[in-house]
Specification:
Elements (H helix, E strand, L loop, with lengths): L2 E6 L14 E2 L2 E2 H16 L2 E5 L3 H9 L19 H16 L5 E6 L7 H13 L5 E7 L9 E3 L5 E3 L16 E11 H5 L10 E5 L10 H12 L10
Parallel strand pairs: 1-4, 1-5, 6-10
Antiparallel strand pairs: 2-3, 5-9, 6-9, 7-8
């Protein structure tokens, strides 16, 4: 069983400048993802591939223990480039380099580092057990529900529930929905043969993260997580 772990870290972040290598509790953000990738790779004899267009990110990754001679092409280094296309490009690079075909790809998002090795192991087993599934991604319970308290503008020009096919009178009776927390994504090789452009397929699984997990989109997110780590407020252990 051949596994590739991809860590995609584009330069030029607009929301948080230098986000991928910004210090989080004194450690470059990308180092959190690299360290857990190394732990998973050691157990499964996986290859770790860094995908970046930024030489400074590449340097920090090397200092954190992962070096690469791959450099992301310019057309995949914009904020409009699709993540799947980015993964496919680096996957093909490593397949050619090592003359092998990967059975699974695990993509770890640098900007959502609150994951544990136990999360990855449980999610991987879940995907392997379902022979029909194409992929799996991590989620949390959603804070808002489109059946109960999320609205959108309708064709009439007025506003109503996003999902109004049925009457829902309380949050507790609304259908369960989830937020993608962008932490990790597992793909079977069949997923890439189907040429999907998003993570959503007719045979997609989720892994419900049993602890706090969120993406670092804004500076306040970064400051909040820095506080949680520096003050030892998390109720679980990540790679440290």
């Amino acid at each position: 069983m051949e596994i590739l772990i991809t860590i995609c870290a584009r330069g030029g972040s607009k929301g948080i400048p230098g986000k991928n290598i910004k210090l989080l509790n004194g450690i470059p953000l990308i180092a959190y993802t690299i360290q857990i990738a190394k732990r998973f790779a050691e157990k499964h004899t996986a290859v770790i591939g860094i995908s970046t267009d930024d030489l400074e990110i590449k340097r920090v990754a090397e200092e954190s223990g992962i070096s690469t001679d791959y450099l992301r092409p310019v057309h995949l280094a914009t904020d409009r480039a699709g993540k799947i296309d980015t993964i496919v490009d680096v996957m093909h690079y490593y397949e050619t380099k090592f003359d092998k075909t990967f059975d699974y790809v695990l993509d770890l998002d640098v900007t959502s580092p609150l994951r544990t090795l136990e999360d990855l192991e449980h999610a991987f087993e879940q995907l392997k057990l379902d022979t029909q599934a194409m992929n799996l991604f991590s989620v949390n319970h959603a804070a808002r529900n489109p059946y109960f308290n999320m609205v959108e503008k309708k064709d009439s020009g007025y506003y109503g529930l996003v999902k109004n096919e049925e009457v829902v009178l309380s949050r507790q009776t609304a259908p369960q929905v989830y937020d993608l927390n962008a932490s990790f994504y597992f793909y079977k090789s069949e997923f890439f043969k189907k040429d999907y452009k998003t993570v959503f397929t007719e045979k997609t699984l989720i892994y419900l993260t049993p602890h706090l997990c969120f993406d670092l989109d804004h500076l306040i997110d970064f400051e909040f997580l820095d506080f949680l780590l520096s003050e030892n407020k998390l109720e679980f252990q990540i790679w440290m």
